[in-house]
Amino acid sequence: MDFNTQARAARAASIELVSLNRATKDAALHAMADSLAAAEPSLLEANAIDVATARGNGTPESIVDRLSLDPGRVSGMVQGLRDLAALPDPVGDVVRGWRLPNGVRVTQVRVPFGVVGIIYEARPNVTADAAGIALKSGNAALLRGSSSAFNTNKAAVAALRAGLEGVGINPDAVNLVEGGREVTTEMMQARGLVDVLIPRGGAGLIQAVVDGSKVPVIETGTGNTHLFVDASADLDMAVDIMVNAKTQRCSVCNALETLLVHRDVAEAFLPKALAALGEHDVTIHGDEAFVRASDDVLPVKLEDFTGEWLSMDLSAKVVDSLDEALEHIRTYSTGHSETIVTSDRAAADRFVAEVDAAAVLVNASSRFVDGGEFGFGAEIGISTQKLHARGPMALPEMTSTKYIIEGDGQVRA
Amino acid sequence: MDFNTQARAARAASIELVSLNRATKDAALHAMADSLAAAEPSLLEANAIDVATARGNGTPESIVDRLSLDPGRVSGMVQGLRDLAALPDPVGDVVRGWRLPNGVRVTQVRVPFGVVGIIYEARPNVTADAAGIALKSGNAALLRGSSSAFNTNKAAVAALRAGLEGVGINPDAVNLVEGGREVTTEMMQARGLVDVLIPRGGAGLIQAVVDGSKVPVIETGTGNTHLFVDASADLDMAVDIMVNAKTQRCSVCNALETLLVHRDVAEAFLPKALAALGEHDVTIHGDEAFVRASDDVLPVKLEDFTGEWLSMDLSAKVVDSLDEALEHIRTYSTGHSETIVTSDRAAADRFVAEVDAAAVLVNASSRFVDGGEFGFGAEIGISTQKLHARGPMALPEMTSTKYIIEGDGQVRA
């Protein structure tokens, strides 16, 4: 099916989704879960083909791992759909409301976007996850996965659609977008047909979508996150937060990438920090002060400050002041999550006010910047843009609003 | 000054604006107002040059009228700035907040976008208005007005900047973007330097910005608005609402453009409607049923349904059902404001649920869809997109949010 036909079918389905109540949508999510669970054998078979092809193409094992399914991972996808059914429905929520002086009632309510396009890399779990989040928020989904996961995604979407059909819902609510790269371009041009595009994946994918899309985009994710240890910091607390933010899971967007230390505490803090990071086999790329402090520190290069490590590496630098820390963060931050450890209220207040990021943390680990940790129950990604949603995005962020204006014949004077 | 230098200066100013409290910003707005009032002679002189040039170029009088200033219009611009000072400051407003199980506090607060670009046509009042709204919401403004208003805008911005300097605020908070068309293109490419672009003007301008911009855009305005007179409508109420929506001010985006009438009431409603519209010299472009009803009705053409009249013209059609009305609106609506007049709860509910627009009205005139009528006090435009803001946009819509996360050393398990 060509993309335009598919997108029109999704739009037609989206009109039906708008009016479904929560009970119906929750039943659909359980039906999708049941159908996916029943399809496990065909899903694993399809996945085995994708994995074999990927290995044959010399794909790195870390990427093959992301692509691979096993019964445990399929169960995770199934459970994810059931968990969504337990969450409140954002559609219809009243955001605010009031009466005009003439008695006209104005109510702003949450409504689905309509058709949501999700462009993602070779993680088959995103297929079920994104389909479920879209359905619960009343949106039809156009899922554009990686070609390397094509067979897996095709089997998964077939199962999800069968689940929808079983409960009498238009299966065009969930669609796998097929075809070559030119189809991604068509998707990005489809303003009016697709209401919002959400890229999920690495920096390259996100940049390509942001640059090429005429459809409004919600930019998710890259996090070049910093931790500033202020002059007044509790140094043991700073060590704990630093180690947790760097090592608890180093491959994710809210993991620590650059450590900034106030010169006044450098002498006391660096030995503690180096010892703790050494225990976790973190490779430190530091400035002169760090290099002087340990033979294990590699000299930091300018480019080490510009991107994400996403590994057990850490850039590190001593700064002369809060101002210098703020300036460094302003220069290199991707606006995701930035942390200060301090005992000084004024320093905390300035850091919170002046750092321009989705999340600013005081005396806590940046690993908390996460939909799950926030208690959202579901997460479609972490927005690093300022429009619409910023930070972890869950079901309410998958909606727009509409003003309902009700009178009994009022006209404007 | 080249655009990039100017945008960087605006960004530097925006960092200072973030931390200004309301009292400081309100004092700045009054200083801008005083300075603009004092500059009235130079403003009128500059405007006379623009008006003479426009007339010399054969510009239509309706556009020359928009461009023209007189002492009354200057007073309006000055008063607009003072009115903004009386409105609450959205920056710092807590949107929501909660504690994580481990005691970490999460607070979502409103923050300025940073740098806002506004691209608009030859209405000099937008210069003061947009500068004031940006300042009150803590944003630096890059104002890109029409070249035909260049001298006027230059004089106005000089006065506004002098007002800011007088109270010790960085004048780069308000900037007039100068240069040819290539500068508009630079502005649309400046992702990272400009946080959001808001085009204000006709459909052509808005489309060009939406299509060409890599900076996130808030699409404002075109309104191809419909009124559906349902089978159960109170016909006198329908006449009042129709006449008000069409004639109270026909050149604006919330004015009525197409009338749809349920066949069951056509025989009773058409004579009333035609008589009332005739009194206001409205030209009706109607389908066969309307043409049969009066010799004054012109036969409607397909293209009459697709765009805005913005004049005392009205497209009109009889439909067989609510379904046909919904389908017509789905096909031609620009998603601005759509109205049903009905006494039937079920019809109203379906219309409200299924019509995909910023505002859906039941038994009230679409002329209420307006920031001023909503009681917002200020309006930067009416968003017809689904991302970020939909409907009338005021000060809160000129902000983003930030999560502030505060702990006493918590780390993720």
UniProtKB/TrEMBL annotation, chains A, B:
<dbReference type="InterPro" id="IPR016162">
    <property type="entry name" value="Ald_DH_N"/>
</dbReference>
<keyword id="KW-0963">Cytoplasm</keyword>
<dbReference type="InterPro" id="IPR015590">
    <property type="entry name" value="Aldehyde_DH_dom"/>
</dbReference>
<keyword id="KW-0028">Amino-acid biosynthesis</keyword>
<comment type="similarity">
    <text>Belongs to the gamma-glutamyl phosphate reductase family.</text>
</comment>
<comment type="function">
    <text>Catalyzes the NADPH-dependent reduction of L-glutamate 5-phosphate into L-glutamate 5-semialdehyde and phosphate. The product spontaneously undergoes cyclization to form 1-pyrroline-5-carboxylate.</text>
</comment>
<comment type="pathway">
    <text>Amino-acid biosynthesis; L-proline biosynthesis; L-glutamate 5-semialdehyde from L-glutamate: step 2/2.</text>
</comment>
<dbReference type="Pfam" id="PF00171">
    <property type="entry name" value="Aldedh"/>
</dbReference>
<keyword id="KW-0560">Oxidoreductase</keyword>
<protein>
    <recommendedName>
        <fullName>Gamma-glutamyl phosphate reductase</fullName>
        <ecNumber>1.2.1.41</ecNumber>
    </recommendedName>
</protein>
<keyword id="KW-0641">Proline biosynthesis</keyword>
<dbReference type="GO" id="GO:0055129">
    <property type="term" value="P:L-proline biosynthetic process"/>
</dbReference>
<dbReference type="InterPro" id="IPR000965">
    <property type="entry name" value="GPR_dom"/>
</dbReference>
<dbReference type="InterPro" id="IPR016161">
    <property type="entry name" value="Ald_DH/histidinol_DH"/>
</dbReference>
<keyword id="KW-0521">NADP</keyword>
<dbReference type="InterPro" id="IPR016163">
    <property type="entry name" value="Ald_DH_C"/>
</dbReference>
<dbReference type="InterPro" id="IPR020593">
    <property type="entry name" value="G-glutamylP_reductase_CS"/>
</dbReference>
<feature type="domain" description="Aldehyde dehydrogenase">
    <location>
        <begin position="7"/>
        <end position="279"/>
    </location>
</feature>
<dbReference type="GO" id="GO:0005737">
    <property type="term" value="C:cytoplasm"/>
</dbReference>
<dbReference type="GO" id="GO:0050661">
    <property type="term" value="F:NADP binding"/>
</dbReference>
<dbReference type="InterPro" id="IPR012134">
    <property type="entry name" value="Glu-5-SA_DH"/>
</dbReference>
<dbReference type="GO" id="GO:0004350">
    <property type="term" value="F:glutamate-5-semialdehyde dehydrogenase activity"/>
</dbReference>
